[in-house]
Amino acid sequence: MTRICVAKILNAHGIKGFVKIRPFVDDISLLVNDQITLYKNENGQDKIVITLKNPVKGDYLAYIDGVNDRNAAEELRHVEIFMDEDDLPALDDDEIYHKDLVGLNVVNESDEKIGVVKSIQNFGAGDLVEIKPISGKSFYIPFNEDYVLDIDLDGKTLKATNYQDFMD
Q: Which residue did the predictor score with more confidence, 86 or 61?
């Protein structure tokens, strides 16, 4: 079974064991739904139960079952939270999951291949498409209409523009 990363624990918060979580889902209820099992890692069986407290600048303060002090919360720093792909909700026609973009060929406005989508990242200021070019170092472009013109899942391509300034 394939698992999808739906959130990441950023750090401990306070002395009572709270943590700060960065969700990677639009529907935050996926992180607290009793019907969905969440895991501490991609392949293991360590389950995690989250109680969200309040939003903090796009992230959330949360309580993790069994974590009652700062030391225990610190041990969870940078832990990624996963769910089974089969538990993901159905999407509308104009929506896609980030996982579906990884591996797409990146082409320019003339449909010439410039590289491959390596990952989608978010360091706090919005989603970025990491592109591994045909030669050279990977680079990032913002995942918005100014840089991503089209996504064709059937044709396995992502059409990019204005990317030259981000290349080495």
A: 61
Count other C-beta atoms under 10 Å from residue 118's C-beta.
Answer: 18
Amino acid at 85: E
Instruction: Confirm if 136 and 168 have CB atoms less than 8 A apart.
Output: yes
Residue the block writes with tokens 């009652």: 68
Q: What is the pLDDT of residue 61?
A: 95
Look up residue 3 and give its two tokens: 């698992």
Domain 98-166 has CATH 2.30.30.240: yes
Q: What is the pLDDT of residue 1?
A: 67
Comma-separated ranges of CATH 2.40.30.60 domains in the chain: 3-87
Question: What's the CATH number of domain 3-87, 3.30.590.10, 2.40.30.60, 3.30.70.2570, 3.40.50.970?
Answer: 2.40.30.60
Mean pLDDT of the chain: 89
Tokens of 51: 């109680």
